Amino acid sequence: MNYFSSNFKLGILGGGQLGKMMLYDTRKFDIYTCVLDPSADAPSRLACDEFTIGDLLDYDTVINFGKQVDVLTFEIENVNVDALETLEKQGVKVFPSSKTLRTIQNKATQKLFYRDHNIPTADFSRFAYTSEIDEAIDHGGLSYPFVWKSARFGYDGTGVKVVRNLSDLTDLPNVECITEKLIPFKNELAVIVARNAQGDVKTYPVVEMEFHPEANQVEYVICPARIPDAIAKKAESVALKVAAEFKHVGLLAVEMFQTETDDILVNEVAPRPHNSGHYSIEASYTSQFEQQIRCILGLPLGNTESKVAGVMVNLVGAENHTGNVVYKNIENILAMDGVTPHIYGKKQTRPFRKMGHVTIVNKDIAVAREIAEQVKRTIEVISE
Amino acid sequence: MNYFSSNFKLGILGGGQLGKMMLYDTRKFDIYTCVLDPSADAPSRLACDEFTIGDLLDYDTVINFGKQVDVLTFEIENVNVDALETLEKQGVKVFPSSKTLRTIQNKATQKLFYRDHNIPTADFSRFAYTSEIDEAIDHGGLSYPFVWKSARFGYDGTGVKVVRNLSDLTDLPNVECITEKLIPFKNELAVIVARNAQGDVKTYPVVEMEFHPEANQVEYVICPARIPDAIAKKAESVALKVAAEFKHVGLLAVEMFQTETDDILVNEVAPRPHNSGHYSIEASYTSQFEQQIRCILGLPLGNTESKVAGVMVNLVGAENHTGNVVYKNIENILAMDGVTPHIYGKKQTRPFRKMGHVTIVNKDIAVAREIAEQVKRTIEVISE
Known about the structure:
The structure is a homodimer of 384-residue chains. Chain A has helices spanning 17-28, 59-66, 81-89, 98-105, 107-116, 133-138, 166-170, 229-245, 280-283, 288-296, 330-334, 365-378, and strands spanning 10-13, 33-37, 50-53, 71-74, 93-94, 124-127, 146-150, 160-163, 177-181, 185-195, 201-203, 207-211, 218-223, 250-259, 264-270, 309-316, 323-328, 339-343, 348-349, 354-362, 380-383. With 384 residues, chain A is α+β, with helices and mostly antiparallel strands. Chain A starts with 9 loop residues before the first strand and ends with a strand. Chain A has 3 domains: 10-94, Rossmann fold (3-Layer(aba) Sandwich); 123-181, Dna Ligase, domain 1 (2-Layer Sandwich), CATH 3.30.1490; 185-383, ATP-grasp fold, B domain (D-amino Acid Aminotransferase, Chain A, domain 1, 2-Layer Sandwich). In chain A, α1 (17-28) crosses α10, α2 (59-66) runs parallel beside α3 and α4 (98-105) packs across α5. In chain A, strands 10, 11, 12, 13, 14, 15, 16, 18 and 20 form a 9-stranded antiparallel beta sheet that branches. The first copy, chain A, has a 5-stranded parallel beta sheet with strand order 3-2-1-4-5, with helices on both faces. A 4-stranded antiparallel beta sheet of chain A has the order 6-9-7-8. The interface between A and B is large, with 42 and 41 residues. Chains A, B: Pathway: Purine metabolism; IMP biosynthesis via de novo pathway; 5-amino-1-(5-phospho-D-ribosyl)imidazole-4-carboxylate from 5-amino-1-(5-phospho-D-ribosyl)imidazole (N5-CAIR route): step 1/2.
């Protein structure tokens, strides 16, 4: 198949920010793209060749969209997986596969997959409804504290909560869920694995999510992670095992904990470009977005090494600000060395809404980290 | 003015490949863009917010397009400069200015500008018509060989020719033109100067255009140029002088000769992103396209240094091939380290038509140069 011709069509389910960033690379390679998204204002509405408005969870909509393309991918997990399976049977190349997505879509089956394939992960229990957790506690099968996770997407809420007592528990929605042992960890790490249909595989360097000391929120993604080589190698090999067991085609972002005893436990995976890989646009020889295209089109994989060190800061809406967004002091961060803001184009801000990200690159990771702190202190995402 | 809001509109005259590459950065910063181009198939038709089909040389068309935007720029010199001047008077910020563009648009006035401002350039003569050159030769005011250049754009032809005898001369179109002394040179160099309205100025590293030993055609653009530091400094200072004399706002690509006696002579300038700066997308901290946006919006300038060395190869249509384009062996170059093809999306190839470019980056310039040679030997732009 000649990808570099107008006879070839790549379909992307989801027209969000990840899709928007991927479209830069499809345009660079002049690959014809069709995007499906429910919102007429989706960031990908520009830059794709054909934009279709439609429900990603509706079987017929996804079938009708998918059957006109040669290769179909997604930039969001919450799509109709039955439709993907039908399309695969009809000869459309769906990457990553419907089987992998089905396993990942449900956090309970995702965890079972790890257990079945001897992939290290925190111990867990599975519940058809949150209300059943109570009983497990009563019977001594579970004790506080633990981490509660909704098994599925698609309800209004964060989906993850640390439960320390009964009152934490009663606030939760009554949905299919898992509980996980609360693991004290030194670091939260991530590795993006790239694998094409031929089975060629490469990993990006291990990155580190640095947490805010009080807010317990990821503040910086740092590449490379400031960890010993032996830990990095262990994390890489766990990530490679996960991708191999999935026979994955595409990017797989593997989030992991480095425990206090230096074990590596898989937290969860995302079968697509990922926030932990945004630094790659500026820092890597091949950005994660170009790499995703290489993977799913069966092209040779690009170099995953870094030209320079990178730090990524998420831009989220400030507390107490709701309304038309203003990026206060953005000019000031543009004056800092190696700083690139990515503005997602959402017109309205609200507290903690993800509005963009900023990448800071430098030959010296310590300098990049310092400038990242300045960036964070300087720019404010507020309302008019 | 808040550039990062939907109230702000950036207008771009010309929707070609340069505009297309600039739109990646306007999208990254979420800057609203309006593009005017005569072709419904222009590369920028995607990725801009508003696309208007219209003649760039028509006064009323440019006025009507320009009066709806806050800042107006161009990605091609061949636009109606009277309209730009009117728009400036009406309060539209036009960068680079109409005055600069008017001087540059005509190669005779461009050369006079250099002479008037003591900018080193090859000796030249000015002719209202090519047919007048004959007489100058007869009177001994000019002798073979010399370089003939059309003063203006907009006729079918290359615009530059080395004239060695009468028969070379008679083949030329009878238009306003200049003749230049033929200067034997060691190297053809270029420096891109970035300057914003506040007068902040930065230069990109000096690049070298490496010529094919026989075809006398630029084969590689190499950054940094493999020349002594003293020559690089001289080239930089000449380029800075040109930008300062123009009181330029925006990018100015200054092409220069390093003569056999190590003098630097300005050949010509382009007031926009330039082929000699394409390497910057992959190699520089700030690509020339992002830098152009920073310049014309009065934002702080980005770091012009390189993360890694870069070599750029133009992809042109192979001889004896006309028709639907095929990029033969593109998969093979994608397997090479640090190689990024940029495909411009023209559906038809013809001999020597510029169809794209390939950037090769590496920590070691010698390795990048070697891979560039492999790229050139491998990929072929042919017809089906």
